[in-house]
Amino acid sequence: MKRRILYILAAISCVLFVRCEKFLDEKPNKKLVVLSSVKDAQALLNNTSVFITAHPTSGEFAAGDFYLLTEDWQSLSWQSHRQSYIWGDHVFDDMERNDWSLPYVAVYNANVILDAIANGEIKQGTQNQIDDIRGQALFFRSYAFYSLLQIFSKAWDNTTSKSDLGIPLRLSSDFNIPVKRATVAECYEQIIKDMQEAVVLLNETTTLKTRPTKTAAYAFLARIYLNIGRYELARASASEALASHSQLINYNTLDMTAQNPFAIFNEEVIYHVRLWNFLPYPPVPKIDPELFASYHHDDLRRTLFFISNGDGTFSYKSGYNGDDGLFNGLATDELFLIRAECYARLGQTEKGLQDLDALLSKRWKAESYIPYSTMTEVDALKIILDERRKELVFRGLRWSDLKRLNKEPRFAVTLKKKIADKEYVLSPNDNRYVFPIPSAVIEMTGIQQNPR
After folding, report:
1. Count H helices, E strands: the chain?
2. How far is CA 401 from each of CA 48, 122, 408, rounded to the nearest angstrom?
3. So what's the pLDDT on residue 374?
4. % of the chain beyond a pLDDT of 70
5. Dihedral sign computed on CA atoms, order 256, 262, 263, 269
6. 265 - beta bridge partners?
């Protein structure tokens, strides 16, 4: 019976958030969604389709790491993919399951559990178990909020984030609470607050990499702090995570000929989630030639990440999702790169290069990698950022990196794409770096649309 109730709850949440009418006007029958035990709550948190495979994909289509031929772009099945690729105005108007609705399903489910704990409804279980459940729910909600913020809001700006529009912060499962957009600053404050609490509540270890731990919370804080320029806090958080999980895969041990050379839940993975959608199959998405050329011939990532299309072009092959899906979780390679960047920005260039060397020595052919020597902070930072793009390619991070780095003229880039006879150009800090909210949501809630 309880399992049936949990299935009903999951179904209700999906309907409520995917259909805007229900998102606003209906709320679930409380008799169906009461959680009474840790086991009930954990069963809901174990719903991978809600929490693990529902993170935005549109940033990868927009970020410029691959290009499409005109006929391939025209043949894409989904309008959202075609529109994301050219930074269009009507990205999410063709389907109810999209980069806005799916993360809010996770938010709703997390809120159901948080409300149940706050109301004293979960009585069966120890306090430590209840604390861990609360920590997981806070983590999942924050991860969803952060994902939404990267797509539907401007990058962090110390001068404007207190007024820039962020996303609706749904902190309760009560649908009667009006929908309104918080500021970007308020959104990050809430995300950080929840993650700081999760660090205290979560267990140290887990047998499932789809379940967050204390280490995952520190790793996520490192990502968040880096994105808003709090480099000392990002460095400290990355170090906390690396203190308990610092394994790096020696790529020389992998099968270079395998279609999927990386195991899912491999030893670098701290927390596993993936983007909810896929790239088109090879040879349709062709890797940006400049990006591919940046991998040295002795760099094993050149072979492990990409596959030849037989015509001089290359496509993405596989990554830490263990198949052609796109990993968006937390792993030690990202932590080494976060800490390296922070060290460089904080004037500790030598330490930054040491972290970079630790990573790259596991990525190149055996005995071919030459460690970096002393250099200026500017040169070191550029190298670290270049390696960040190469290591974390198709991990759902490039769009966020473009947005934050465009705030620094020395790292700003202009993206260009061509379809048929039309060239599309995205200048640094263009309004189109913020995706339009689905029009159905605007119509039903009255919240302000993002300018284009």
Report:
1. 20, 10
2. 27, 40, 11
3. 86
4. 92
5. positive
6. none
Alpha helices in 46-93 (DSSP H): 48-51, 58-62, 70-74, 79-85
In the numeric block, which tokens belong to residue 312? Answer: 């001089």
d(CA 91, CA 83): 5
**Residues in the chain with pLDDT values less than 70:** 1-33, 94
Cα→Cα distances 82→6, 24, 68, 87, 279, Å: 36, 29, 10, 9, 12
pTM of the model: 0.93
b/e string for 317-347 if b means 16 or more Cβ within 10 A? bbbbbbebbbbbbbbbbbbbbbbbbbbbbee
Question: Cis bond leading into 283, ω under 30°?
Answer: yes
Q: Are 177 and 231 in a shared domain?
A: no
Tokens representing 135 are: 């920590």
Within 13 Å of residue 302, how many CA atoms lie on the same side as its CB? 15
Same domain, 246 and 271: yes
Tokens 């009667």, residue located = 176
**Domain span at residue 86?**
66-91+415-452
Question: Could you please report the per-residue DSSP string of 116-159?
Answer: HHHTT---BS-HHHHHHHHHHHHHHHHHHHHHHHHHHSPPP-TT
- Is residue 361 situated within a structural domain? yes
- Same domain assignment for residues 150 and 267: no
Return d(Cα 309, Cα 312) in angstroms, integer. 7
In a domain, 81, yes or no: yes
The answer to whether 14 and 6 have CB atoms below 8 angstroms apart is no
User: Which residue shows structure tokens 């790529």?
Assistant: 251
Residue 135, CB-side half-sphere exposure with 13 Å CA sphere: 24
Q: Measure CA of the first residue to CA of the last residue in the chain; give whole Å.
A: 49
Residue 284 lies in a domain: no
In this prediction, residue 33 carries a pLDDT of 57
